[in-house]
Design brief:
Number of strands: 9
Structural class: alpha+beta
Distance between the termini: 121 Å
Amino acid sequence: MTDGRRSKLETALLDSRLLTSDEAAEASACEGGLAGWLRRGRLLPPALIEQAERGEPLRLGRYVVMGRLGKGGMGAVLRARDDALGREVALKVVRPDGGDEPETLRERFRREALALARLDHPGVVRVYDLEALPDGLMVLAMERVEGCSVEERIRRGPLPERDAQRLLRQVTQAMIAAEAQGIVHRDLKPGNVLWVAEGDVYKVCDFGLARFQREAPSGGGQLTQACTVLGTPFYMSPEQVAGDALDARSDMYSLGLSLHEVVTGKVPFAGPRLDEVLRRRLREDVPNLRRVAPHVSPGLARVVAWMTQRDRARRPATWKALASELAALGDSERLRRASGERARAAPAARPPGPRVPVVALVALALAAGAALGALAAWLGR
């Protein structure tokens, strides 16, 4: 569609970087037009769509919307400017689904945001503010990170083990801080770990947002409910699939599956049927990492196997316990590298010369002695 034929809504969204030209082309072929397509796909909050249709400035509360950063499981992630403080933020926009008591959900969201705001750790994306809007939307203002997700990074291929270990160590330290606040992430995956190239830093984001949807009911239907409520299916722990209460060990399992994908390019238990993928989580052990990627060190494979035990009682009891194991792994890796460097630096042994029999050496000495004696007799004449 040419600029002259664009609707007011399409022009406003393209100009504000809330819509790409490819998305606009896709939407034009859909019944219901652009606005209907956006609402069905939940790419943008309805309030922004209505403002753009009316030609008004795009705002959510005190935040001026400047573009779209992505789409989360529960809503859009927007780039915005905080009018009050004059700084750019990442704005997570959440609408509780299926709740009969929105006020209760908003209160739970508020309490969680307060807990997250106390997480002052360099490995955690900071939470600045929470605002509940009149139309039921809740917006969470967070630190805007100049980087990309690990999910985006591994689309170009698996990461070297050195990078995977660095990711594991940094995320573990961030989760120690979360554990101290009693926070369980529930959706730890490559898409929720951001990588900043400058400094080679990893930051965990989207802490605990899934807690504010309705909990999976006990009894039947847990598989279907669990994937909607408590996390992303391909990274869920067996206890998440079963609808059990969760603790830090569930996040460890999810991080272990993420490490599998980071170093191999594939997540375990993938498949076309969601229900079967989830049931396999309950019945099958995670394949040993070295069977899938023989180049991975035995130490890293051992740690990931520990994190992904089906029985959570056999996983590390705490994130600190996992950090201790990673420290030991680091020591052994440094020792291995040092040994390899010493072996490369040692002078090469000289190849052995031809071996001369002892008898031959004695004969040679006697012959030399006889010759010297004859020479001395001749000189003494």
